[in-house]
Amino acid sequence: MLSFNEALKEAKIALGKHHKETRIASLLLEDMFQMDQVALMMRGTETISDNALKSYREAVERVIEDYPYQYITGRAHFYGRTFKVNSHTLIPRNETEELVYHVLDKVKSGKIVDIGTGTGAIGLTLKLENKALDVYVTDISSDALRVTKQNMDALDAKVTILNGDMLKPLTDKNIKVDVLISNPPYIAESETDEMSASTVKYEPHSALFAEEDGLYFYRNIIEGLEFVLNTDGKVFFEIGYKQGEKVKDLFLSNWPKSKVQVIKDINGQDRIIYAEWVK
């Protein structure tokens, strides 16, 4: 029989031996059994049941085999909230929280759209942080939008969900917005070697990879901005760390009067495109 503290120690040792992040042991314990740091301080010496220990050990083994721990628990943490995730959705990243931060800093009201929403993390967070925003979220994947709907209901965030590819859900309904946000697939196939094994093996490739050296979705969205953006509209993209100048040039080649800025993340890497669109 092991206590929660002992089970955690065992899991950290196992993960460390296989060069995995040992903090995942704590995250699993928290998401599976609601044993966060405070609970461990108060109840960590309590015995973990045989069934719970078996489930915990199996989860640790799956992480060792590169399976994302968020898919094991069905939960991911983003901007201080918990979102449901599954294999149909990309797992929200810390870097994307910076995109949300910059949108909230620059946009105080109006109609906005999150293109390729996945879990809904971006669009739902924006609505929850600023109730004045009229938020639309879109995705081509019906499976992903089912997760979006579950997160919307769980978080009580009222947004409009639309199914379809890129700008089509907006153009089909003659919807124009003041702000367009997207974290589209932007990884080139040639960059696979730079990615973690768990991402390549298990996260949906349709949400990761893009043709044209990763620029396919940016180009298509940028070319269609006049059909979905109101006058003086704003655009925010999350980008790969090598793509700043490429996406900026792509934007200005289509809309040369626009103001386009490449914003770096906390690690000093190009991460966000912010554009004030002028037709």
Which helices and strands occur, and which strands form pairs?
Blueprint: H1 4-17, H2 23-33, H3 37-43, H4 50-64, H5 69-73, E1 75-78, E2 81-84, H6 94-106, E3 110-115, H7 121-129, E4 133-139, H8 142-155, E5 160-163, H9 168-171, E6 177-182, H10 197-202, H11 216-223, E7 229-238, H12 244-254, E8 259-264, E9 270-276
Parallel strand pairs: 3-4, 3-6, 4-5, 6-7
Antiparallel strand pairs: 1-2, 7-9, 8-9
Helix pairs in contact: 1-2, 1-4, 2-4, 6-7, 11-12
Explain what this protein looks like in three dimensions.
- By secondary structure, this protein is an alpha/beta fold.
- It folds into two domains: 4-65; 86-276, Vaccinia Virus protein VP39 (Rossmann fold).
- Strand 3, helix 7 (121-129) and strand 4 form a beta-alpha-beta unit.
- The protein starts with a helix and ends with a strand.
- 42% of the residues lie in helices and 19% in strands.
- The strands form two sheets. The protein has a seven-stranded mixed beta sheet, with helices on both faces. A two-stranded antiparallel ribbon has the order 1-2.
- Helix 2 packs across helix 4 (50-64) and helix 11 packs parallel to helix 12 (244-254).
- It is elongated.
For the sheet with most strands, the description reads: 7 strands, mixed
CATH class of the largest domain: Alpha Beta
Radius of gyration from the CA trace? 20 Å
CATH topology of the largest domain: Rossmann fold
Order of helices and strands: HHHHHEEHEHEHEHEHHEHEE
3D shape = elongated
Distance between the termini: 68 Å
Low-confidence stretches: none
CATH architecture of the largest domain: 3-Layer(aba) Sandwich
| Domain count | 2
What portion of residues is helical?
Answer: 40-55%
Order of strands in the sheet with most strands: 5-4-3-6-7-9-8
Counted by DSSP, the helix tally is 12
Round the mean pLDDT to the nearest integer and report it.
96
Strand content: 15-25%
CATH superfamily of the largest domain: Vaccinia Virus protein VP39
